[in-house]
Known about the structure:
- This protein has 410 residues and is of the alpha/beta class.
- The protein folds into two domains: 9-188, Rossmann fold (3-Layer(aba) Sandwich), CATH 3.40.50.1950; 199-409, CoaB-like (Rossmann fold).
- Helix content is 34%, strand content 25%.
- The protein contains 14 helices and 19 strands.
- The protein has helices at residues 21-33, 52-59, 70-75, 78-84, 95-103, 109-116, 129-133, 135-146, 176-188, 224-235, 263-273, 316-321, 341-352, 391-409; strands spanning 9-15, 36-42, 87-93, 120-125, 154-155, 159-162, 168-172, 199-204, 208-212, 215-218, 239-244, 256-259, 278-281, 288-290, 310-312, 330-337, 356-361, 371-378, 383-390.
- The strands form five sheets. The chain has an eight-stranded mixed beta sheet with strand order 12-11-8-13-16-17-18-19, sandwiched between helices.
- Helix 1 (21-33) packs parallel to helix 2, helix 4 (78-84) crosses helix 6 (109-116) and helix 5 crosses helix 8.
- The chain is elongated and about 95 Å long.
- The two termini are 29 Å apart.
- The site of cytidine-5'-monophosphate has 15 residues, from helix 12 and strand 16.
Amino acid sequence: MTxxxxxxxxxxxxxxxxxxxxxxxxxxxLFSRSGVETQAILTKAGEEFVTPLSLAAxxxxxxxxxxxxxxxxxxxxxxxxxxxxxxxxxxxxxxxLIAKAANGLADDLASTTLMATDKRVLMAPAMNVRMWTHxxxxxxxxxxxxxxxxxxxxxxxxxxxxxxxxxxxxxxxAEPPSILEAALALLDGPDGRPLSGRRAxxxxxxxFEPIDPVRGLTNRSSGxxxxxxxxxxxxxxxxxxxxxxxxxxxxxxxxRRVWVETxxxxxxxxxxxxxxxxxxxxxxxxxxxxDGVATGKIKKAPGxxxxxxxxxxxxxxxxxxxNGPRRPKLVVGFAAETGDLIALAKAKLSRKGCDWIVAxxxxxxxFGAEANAVTLIRADGSMEALDRRSKAEIARALAxxxxxxxxxxx
Length: 410
Ligand code: C5P
């Protein structure tokens, strides 16, 4: 089986209104030469300096301009857009955009995206020297730099030089190669894609165990949580193989999906996807399969149902956890329980030999739902409750913990 190639890095480029906006077109070209995909957002003021058409032609994607465009929002909503990216670059970053970001003002697509993103933001300011040196702008810049953790904005430039307005001093936007360099440092650095270079295997969905050509045994599982985990790991830069049972979901972009039907096929696909740094087993594997699957459809006969003889399926999680030298460094299982959740999940963790288990109370509305609530239990006994939130949020939290684990253990 071939390995998935890492998906391209993605930049969301916000083009503000400034004479330097024409340099952003060059920046897009540089990104594309470095294998970085760009999606542009053009502000109302930005439109005065570059056309949406030229940005669209260079990025190869329609340019996003409005927060309230039904067409755009159904294609990829502004929240999704900010999550799609590995990095947000604002070039040129005007005094206005900087002020909005520093003060949490969200009144158009660009500023809303800046508030909604969970990725690093790189700003390349461009403005008149008097504006740049104004204490208000300087205070806003200082504020943005000081925001905690990932919210802290990184600045590149401005450069000193002659400006379009004829004055001289700091305020010129950094040249595109410098912006590219700063962007690549963030994209490839530990904050940008902390799982870059890591391989992950994720199982998702149910398995289907045939009884005869038309009937089978299966489990209830929409695959949504597992698919969200695959996507979140990929978003952090991991090369992900998603071993999926039959579900009606699109494969996340950049994730290699291997379709399987039965537990035995899932076991083989997981083995073929190893070695991996991390395995997350979220599939609802059928515990049994039918011994001696009928080759033809079993006919209904009056006065009796056929007796099915069942045999146990392999436990893929337990096998992967005990795989000796091919064991992934981190093996994560799921425990869907209805009783004493924590105790049952802890017992499952030690029985299966995995490192972490995501305990999931399925007595509430979970199957097929968009939201979930879980407790992450580690083999060292530590526990973390992730209260009810979307499956995508759960997945992002889990992927972030996985990234932290690798950062800390190295
Ligand atoms: O034993 P139980 O099915 O409750 O265990 C759940 C965990 O074990 C999940 O992570 C599931 O993906 C995994 N599993 C497996 N192979 C099986 C049964 C469960 O990988 N045959």
